[in-house]
Every structure is written in C-alpha cells, then in structure tokens.
Design goal:
Elements (H helix, E strand, L loop, with lengths): L2 E9 L2 E7 L3 E6 L5 H14 L28 E8 L8 H9 L4 E2 L5 E12 L4 E9 L13 H8 L2 E4 L5 H4 L8 H4 L6 H20 L3 H9 L24 H6 L4 E3 L5 E3 L5 H19 L5 E5 L7 H13 L3 E5 L3 H4 L7 E5 L6 E4 L7 H12 L10 E5 L2 H13 L4 H4 L1 E5 L6 H10 L3 E6 L3 H12 L10 E3 L5 H16 L3 H4 L11 H8 L5 H13 L6 H16 L1
C-alpha cells in the first residue's frame, strides 16, 4: 500500500505540515526544519502506536511554542496518514477484502480505494497523564464509527514500515540481536536431519581441538572439584570444554561478517572505518528487505550519505534505488541530489515561521530550461537547493567578488545560508527565479545596466510576488561590473593590467569622467577574473567596498536570517 499523503500538526518543531509523497521522496532543507520529525511521525503512526491505552509519545514530542511552554498545555499532536491507490484495483481483491472486513477502506468517485489513519496524543486533565488516540476517517475527514480495536493491527499487517537512522553502528546491527541480521541466523531454515548432521561435525571438530591441547585436561580435572562442594548430576561428565560451539544455534549467534582490508586481511565490519560500517549496514538493510519483507514496504532512510567519502556519495544512490518499496529519504548532500530524479525532491522550509513542503516537480520549467537546470544547477551544484537565499549575478567576476566582499566585511555567507548563483553561463535568470520561488528560496539579483541587463530587470519584476523592487534588484549605474569597479575606486587596478595595445583605446585623461569607463572597456576579457582577484586584494588591504555591493549583501543576509 502506497502512502500518498502525511499531515502533521503540533509534533515537535512542526506546527503544521501537509506533505504529498511519491514512490521516492527525498526531503531536503535546513537543520531543524523537520525532516527527521517527518520520519519519526510515520514511525509513531505505523509502529509505535498499537493500542489505545498508554502513550508512546513523551513530553518533548509535543510542540513547545515558547521557552516556558508546558507540554501539559500544548496543543494535541495529530499525525494523519492517507494510503491511496493510483488506479482502481491496484491493491488487489484479497487485500481490499481484508481492509473492507475491518471497515476501514473508502472508495472515491474514481473508484480508487483509500485508507486514512489519524494518530494523536494529548494531555488528559482528568488523569493528569498523556494519552494516545487513533481513529480511521472517511473521505471527508470524519471519524469512522463501529471500528474494532483490531483494525489498527489489520493496517499494520498490510503496511511494513522500516526506519534506518543516520547513526548506523555496524557492531550493533550485525549483532545476533540486530533486527536486520537476526533473521539470517535463524536455524529453523534447516531440516532436523541437516541440523543433526552439522552438529555432529561440530562436535567432532571440537573433540579434535580439545584433544590436541593437553592443558585443557588440567582445567577439566580441577573444575570437577566443584562437585565436592555442590551436588551435581552427570557423573564424570559434569565438565566439558567447547572450543567450538556444539549447537548450531550457538554457532550462528557468533557468526560475524568480515570485509577485506587493503592488504587482503579479513577484518570484522565493526573494526572498519565509520564510512564502511555505515555502507555495510545500508547493504544489510537492503538484503533484509529483499529476503524477509512481505509485500512492498515503506522505507525511511535518514542521511544515507552519513560518514561516506565524497566520491562514494554519488554512487550510493544506485544502491538506494535497488532497495524495494516506497522510500522517504532525508539528506544534507548536494552530491546525493545530483543523482536523484528531480520529481523526487521536496524542500522543507519555513516561510513566516510555518513549515511548508515545496516539490521541484511543481516548478514550471519548459523542457529546455529543465535540461539546463538539471545540468548546471542540480547535477553540478546540487548544494544550491539547500541555501536560504541566492544572490544571482551575471558572470564569473560577480561570483568571485561578492562572496569575498562579504568575508572582508566579516559577514559569513555560509553561516546564514547564502550562495551565489551565476546566470548567463548555461542557464538564464528566469528559470533560476522560478526554481527559487517554487522551492521557497529567497533571492536578490545584482544586475548590469546594458541591453541584457534591461531584459534581466524585466524578468525580476515578473517574479517579485509583491516584494518591493528596491529590496530585490540591485542595478549598477554603469553598463557592467568592471565599469562599476573602475568608477568606484579601482581604476588603477584595471589600468595596471593594460598592455600598450589596449591602453591606446583609452583616449581621455584620468581627470575625465569617461576615463574609468574607457579603462574598463579596454581590459581584455581573459583578464577580467584576474582583475577581480586584484580588486579583492585591494579591498582586503583596506580600500572601500562599493556601497552597491554592501547593500546587496545586507539585503541577502536580512532575507536569509528571516527564514
């Protein structure tokens, strides 16, 4: 059964969230936006809450709106899951019959079946305790009546939910009690005859080892003296030494998985590096689902890239694709996003303090812009989708200069979540603004004042969505950034880079108002980035940063901090 939608209210940091899920959903966003809370909400609804009595939630699962908020007075938790067919008959007659017997299936106008479960918790003033509640709902969101307490178990029987957290300890997961490793150790898969045959051979090996170590005889002799103090049965055979476990059950419980090192030595997984351990647990998880899960599970993965070397992160997506079932994944990795299908990406963000989920698939791009975005942004710079605010500029000079201006001003772009995005180098401004607006990323534009700049100004005005233009569009009075720098105290830097031939293009004296513009125009294109580096050095040495750049940086920081 496919989980189509999850609605969460007042759970941890989430006051309200309505999230549509696909076959694979990759959640991105800032720290503390609620990615892990979404995975945990599903875990409560599909695994932890099994009865009406008691309470699987604790005080800190309630949304605390202020530093002094009391969980007892917090609004009730509500987690609403909607399972729905994509096409009528998808669930099959037998499964639908089981859901109908439990009286929890609903049929919409198109003939598609759905099941809606609402799980929640609240503080009961009468008992002075937290209590949990659950109900199944009809298509209008009203509670179904006459539902047996066993109905929740029926749904849990139809839906398998597995959650693999970011902290993946291989020693724990590959322990005999590990939830994904234990099923592979079950001896019940062997016939009694085969088990007896194996245990006989184990006993023979054990006797061979014991007989080759005469010192064991001394241990056995002394341990038999126990019967002189405590009455024991068994005659002379009350003591035995097992160098090798004699029972298959004991043998399997001590089974361990080794991986080769660079020298070829076999070392237990738990003794390898954190990245190798994390990857081993992920592959074990896949093996478990392939071998033991019945039906199509719902699989939640938190940060599959955890501890992995950067060169391995992109490759891991192909492993994730082989994991069966519907997948909900949270990640902080731009490299993961470079491999993820665009339709799977959902960004969680907090406009005005409330949580919202924005899907990349809902951003309206034509096929050509989609191709360019996937190539120049998602595949090459996927980390841009994690930013709170974009500063968009036309070329390499802007991309080199503006972040360094911020550093010189001791303003940390990384800390507040600002990234610089160049356009006109493979992708135009308009699709960038569509993606930013559609995914809840703030933005400002630093634009030239030439013919192309005029087109960019018009594009900006189309996507302001009510914002004042002066807070989003920062235009250089001159035609381009080189002219602006020359006109604002850096003409000597540019002039020093001119050789004799381009210097002849400068036909006016330094005192002339056109002199900075002519120097900028005379600079060969191949020297523009070098000139930007020289300008940065001059700024770091104390030369003033142009006000236009300061204003743009301050505007971006204000937007980022408001997220």
């Amino acid at each position: 059964m496919r989980l189509h939608r999850i609605q969460i209210d007042n759970f941890r940091g989430i006051t309200s969230l309505d999230l549509t899920l696909g076959d694979t959903t990759v959640l991105i966003g800032e720290n503390n936006t609620g990615k892990t809370a979404v995975l945990d909400a599903m875990r409560f609804a599909l695994r932890e809450v099994k009865l009406r009595r008691g309470c699987a939630f604790d005080a800190y699962d309630f949304h605390l709106s202020t530093p002094t908020a009391d969980p007892a007075s917090a609004p009730p938790i509500s987690i609403r899951l909607t399972f729905q067919e994509n096409v009528a008959g998808e669930w099959g007659d037998q499964q639908l019959a089981r859901l109908n017997r439990a009286k929890i299936a609903q049929i919409d106008a198109g003939g598609c079946a759905s099941v809606t479960l609402k799980v929640g918790a609240r503080f009961d003033a009468l008992t002075q305790e937290f209590i949990q509640e659950w109900e199944f709902q009809n298509l209008a969101g009203q509670a179904l009546t006459g539902i047996s307490d066993s109905a929740l178990g029926v749904l849990h029987g139809e839906v398998s939910y597995y959650y693999l957290a970011a902290l993946r300890d291989a020693a724990r997961h590959f322990d005999a009690k590990g939830i994904f490793w234990r099923p592979f150790l079950k001896e019940s898969q062997l016939t009694p005859q085969k088990r007896t045959e194996i245990e006989t051979k184990l006993n023979e090996v054990n006797q061979l080892i014991i007989s080759s170590h005469a010192s064991f005889a001394q241990v056995v002799s002394k341990l038999k003296e126990v019967k002189d103090v405590v009455s024991m049965t068994g005659g002379d055979d009350i003591v035995s030494v097992e160098a090798v476990p004699g029972r298959l059950f004991d043998m399997l419980s001590k089974a361990q998985v080794n991986l080769n090192t660079g020298t070829g030595a076999k070392v237990p997984i738990g003794r390898h590096g954190e990245g190798t351990q994390s990857l081993a647990v992920l592959t074990l998880f896949n093996a478990f689902l392939q071998a033991w899960n019945k039906g199509s599970p719902i699989v939640a993965l938190e940060e599959p890239e955890a501890h992995l070397h950067p060169s391995a992160v992109r490759a891991i997506w192909h492993l994730i694709e082989r994991i069966p079932g519907q997948k909900i994944i949270s990640t902080h990795s731009g490299d993961i996003l470079s491999e993820v299908p665009p339709e799977s990406i959902t960004r969680l963000h907090k406009p005005g303090g409330s949580l919202k989920a924005s899907r990349l698939v809902d951003v309206k791009l034509d096929p050509d812009d989609t191709r360019k975005f996937n190539f120049h942004i998602r595949r090459d710079r996927g980390e841009l989708l994690f930013a709170r605010c974009w500063i968009l500029g036309e070329g390499e000079t802007e991309a080199t200069l503006i972040p360094e201006c911020a550093r010189t001003l001791k303003k940390d772009f990384e800390q507040v979540g600002i990234r610089f995005v160049t356009y006109q180098t493979g992708i135009s401004l308009e699709p960038c603004l569509r993606v930013a607006n559609g995914m809840g990323i703030h933005w400002i534009v630093l634009a030239d004042n030439d013919g192309q700049g005029a087109n960019d100004h018009a594009v900006v005005r189309k996507y302001l969505n009510g914002r004042p233009e002066r807070e989003a569009l920062f235009v250089m009075p001159e035609e381009n950034i080189e002219q602006h720098l020359c006109s604002n105290g850096f003409v000597d830097v540019y002039n020093s880079l001119l050789s004799d031939q381009p210097r002849r293009l400068v036909t006016v004296l330094p005192s002339d108002r056109d002199y900075p513009l002519q120097v900028a125009k005379a600079l060969p294109k191949k020297l523009k980035t070098h000139a930007a580096q020289q300008v940065i050095g001059a700024m770091q040495a104390g030369r003033p940063i142009p006000d236009l750049f300061k204003n743009a940086i301050d505007a971006a920081i204000k937007l980022a901090k408001a997220s």
